[in-house]
């Protein structure tokens, strides 16, 4: 039996995923130890795990370096990789939103030309161009997105919001909601055919766990 490889997005998502996996009998004690190893194995189940930057997880899965990945819906939507999204794991819930000063609400509703700052240019472009039919200029930033409307770089931002505290503290509000987000399981298309029984059993175990919780 070959190893089934699972790529996890680093951080809170990985910890919650491993906790969820343990509940369906999939564990990896190696990952709990303080080590500099990059790949961790469960020899009994023939599973391999590795941690990766969230934006890289869909790439590892698309190219078959990982059979399965767990990553946020925001990353999946932004990366647009060729893979199967098979399961909403139900944690890491937040929203992709358009935010800005309160007076921008009317500007948005009128469909006026505006500048939009975001870490997610593909999601923003899809939302404004395809769903709202609104022409905008999208400005890619890599961090502190809330700063953009405060210093005049953009009129609004597209970003993830969980509690809204940062927006509120900077005088910004949620103007429009684009979509709900949460952790998702993705699977390589070839792996789904070649390892269908093993992968389907993992999906079924996690789905049953959710139904019984």
Please specify the SSE layout and strand pairing:
Elements: E1 4-9, H1 12-23, E2 39-42, E3 47-52, H2 57-62, E4 68-72, H3 73-79, E5 84-88, E6 94-100, H4 104-110, E7 114-118, H5 121-131, E8 136-140, H6 147-150, E9 156-161, H7 165-169, E10 173-181, E11 183-187, H8 189-194, H9 196-212
Overview of the structural elements:
With 213 residues, the protein is of the alpha/beta class. The chain is built from nine helices and eleven strands. The chain has helices at residues 12-23, 57-62, 73-79, 104-110, 121-131, 147-150, 165-169, 189-194, 196-212; strands at residues 4-9, 39-42, 47-52, 68-72, 84-88, 94-100, 114-118, 136-140, 156-161, 173-181, 183-187. The strands form two sheets. A six-stranded mixed sheet has the order 2-3-1-4-11-5. A hairpin with a 4-residue loop joins β2 and β3. The two termini are 32 Å apart. Pathway: Amino-acid biosynthesis; L-histidine biosynthesis; L-histidine from 5-phospho-alpha-D-ribose 1-diphosphate: step 1/9. It is found in: Cytoplasm. One of its GO terms (biological process) is L-histidine biosynthetic process. It catalyses: 1-(5-phospho-beta-D-ribosyl)-ATP + diphosphate = 5-phospho-alpha-D-ribose 1-diphosphate + ATP.
Please report which band the strand proportion falls in: under 5%, 5-15%, 15-25%, 25-35%, 35-45% or over 45%: 25-35%
Query: Radius of gyration over alpha carbons?
Result: 20 Å
Task: Work out the number of β strands.
Answer: 11
Morphology call: elongated
Family: Belongs to the ATP phosphoribosyltransferase family. Short subfamily.
Subunit structure: Heteromultimer composed of HisG and HisZ subunits.
Domain ATP phosphoribosyltransferase catalytic: 53-207
EC number: 2.4.2.17
């Amino acid at each position: 039996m070959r190893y089934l490889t699972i790529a996890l997005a680093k951080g809170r998502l990985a910890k919650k995923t491993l906790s969820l996996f343990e509940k369906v009998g999939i564990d990896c004690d190696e990952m709990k130890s303080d080590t500099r190893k990059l790949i961790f194995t469960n020899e009994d189940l023939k599973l391999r795990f590795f941690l990766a930057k969230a934006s890289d997880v869909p790439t590892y899965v698309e190219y078959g370096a990982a059979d399965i990945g767990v990553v946020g819906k925001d990353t999946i939507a932004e990366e647009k990789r060729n893979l199967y999204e098979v399961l909403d794991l139900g944690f890491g819930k937040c929203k992709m939103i358009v935010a800005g000063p309160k007076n921008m609400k009317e500007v948005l509703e009128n469909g006026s030309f505006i500048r939009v700052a975001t870490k997610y240019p593909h999601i923003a472009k899809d939302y404004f161009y395809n769903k709202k039919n609104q022409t905008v200029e999208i400005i890619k930033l890599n961090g502190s997105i809330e700063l953009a409307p405060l210093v005049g770089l953009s009129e609004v931002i597209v970003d993830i919001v969980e509690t809204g505290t940062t927006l509120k503290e900077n005088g910004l509000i949620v103007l429009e909601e684009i979509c709900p987000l949460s952790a998702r399981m993705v699977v390589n298309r070839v792996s789904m055919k070649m390892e269908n029984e093993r992968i389907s059993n993992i999906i079924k175990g996690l789905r049953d766990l959710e139904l019984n919780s």
